[in-house]
Each structure stands twice: as C-alpha cells, then as structure tokens.
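Worked example 2:
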Amino acid sequence: MREIDDERRHQAMQRKVEFIRLSKILRLPRKMIAEIVSATEPQIKGWLDGLEGAEHYLATKEWPGANVNQPQESAVDALREFTIAVAHKAIHDGRSIEGENPFSKQEFIDANRQNVKGVISMISDSDEGRIHRFDILGRVGFIGSVSSSIDRKLGSVEGGHYIPDFEATVAFVDDILDNAWFSYRNWLKLAAGKKRTELEEFLWQKTRYRNFIDFFGLTAEAIALYAGIRTPQDVAAGNKIGLSEARSWAEYSRPVLPPLALVNEMQTAFLGWARDLFNIVEKERGNDARSVGLVLPSISASELDYRLKGLESRKIVKGGNLSPIASREMKILLRQSTDFHKSYSIFHIE
C-alpha cells in the first residue's frame, strides 16, 4: 500500500512540475491557461505555485509542506498539445510569410546545402538504410523538415576506419535538395492565403509583435536599445528617450507599425524554438518517453539577443503609419470588440 501511495505522489508531483514548465514555455497568462485546460483561474494559480517543493520531492521523496495542488492528467495533456499546436502554427505562418518572397531554386540550394552536408558528414557506412531528417531553411528561417533514407553506400571501411566517398555524398546531397525543393514549393502553395488589406496587415504585424515581445520577455527598454532609438548613455542618465516610441509599436491605439526588421528577427527566433520543440517530440517518439514539459526546449533567448544586437549596427527603417481611413477603421474595432486581434495571434489555433 505504501508503494502505491508513493507512486501516486510521484505522479502527482511530476504532473505539477510538467504543467508549470509547460506554462513557462509560452509565458501564457493564467486566464489563457484556464481557457486552454477548461479550469478556473484559482485552480490554475494553485497548480502553478509550489514548483520548488514539487521538484524537491521528485529528487528526495520528501513531501512538500506547502502547496501540493496538482492538475489532472487531462489538464497537462491539454496544455502540452496546445504547446505543440503553437509550434505547428508557427511553421504554417512562417511558410505563409515565406511565400510573399520565396527563394529561387539556386537561392534555396545555397541556403540549405551546408546544413544537409553537415548532417551527411555524421553518417557512417553503417547507417545505410536508416531514415534521417533534414531541417529546411527559407528566408524566414526554419520552415520544415524532409526525411530520406540512406539508399546507397556513402563510403567504405578500410583498416577499421570509415572513408567517405566524395562523389557519392555529393550526389546524395543533390538528390535530397531536389526533393526538398519540391517540398518547399508545395509547403508555400498550401500555406498561401489571400492578400491582406491595409488594416489586416496592421493587425497581423502589430499582434505578432506584441506576442513576440511577451514570448521572449522583452521590455520597452530592450526594444528601444535594439532599435537604436535609445543608447546605453540614455540608460545611464535615466532619461526616457525612445521608450514612448518603443511602447507605441505594441499599442493598437497608436497607428504606427513596428519596424519590420525587429518583427522578422523575432519571427526567425520563434521558428528556431519550434524546431527545437519538434526535435524533442521526435526523440519522445523514438524513446517512448515524455519530456516536452520536463525538458524545456530552448526559447532561443541568446540567439534572439545575438540577432537583435546585429540590428544596432544598421539604421532601423520605421514601420510606417496607417492611412487616415484605416486609422478610423481601427478606432471602430477598438470600440466594438476586445478580441479583434485574436485570429492574428501566434497562439491562435483553429
């Protein structure tokens, strides 16, 4: 009986830890989590409090003296599937954006050859017949993967050492890229949507920008520095230069678009996060393990910081303003609805 109780406690605390970590992946507000898992906000609060105690129990078997409220398995599953669905939507949106300015075939090959060769370089003669996955890049970043089996020998073993066959490897890479090019064009065709109106484009850019700064935990201070409208000297002086403008890029009531360069860099980092999450899901399937909520995929914060710091060295082109007619339409939307932006969110799932 004691063993059964211990197992139940272990599962309960594991669910609690997984639920809390899943909630942190997307930085979702409690209200939204409650909607996703069909629970009340007080329930969500109880489930999200007490991470340290739950982790301590899993490591030591010492039962926490504080909050031990844990979600049902169905709630953990719902939040987990929502997270995976967000990653899938990220890829679909990336393909839709890619379709607005697609690669030519040569550009596609140039962008992807090195990555494919890098994977091939890790394949030995013993891998013949195995399935390997290759990540594919578009202008916007990661937009999908293609799989291929090693259907030919790419080298030979001599004296106990693997000797790659250069010609066979090059031919194999070319075949993979040809198949990937076909997939690339098909992805863009399937993700293509109707042309957006000026107001729809405004909502698309503004909403995604708002979502991204929340997802990556970016402040107006950080954004202003990345955009070059505020300097480290301004920070040291404690003045407000650039902060109002940076905040305006996230406000629907201000008819100004965020700089496209900022949105693009955040979009690329977001797609990198989706790639990381899919890699974890893929490993789960292969190992019959469950780790999406227990092993946090990288949110690419350091990568994003590196990408955005690169913007500091060049002049950021401002996003522009809405026309008077579109501005009036936006004001009407603000008066009439509170969820007018929902369909443009990176978290919106059909």
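The mean pLDDT is 85. The beta strands are 131-138, 141-149, 155-158, 161-164.
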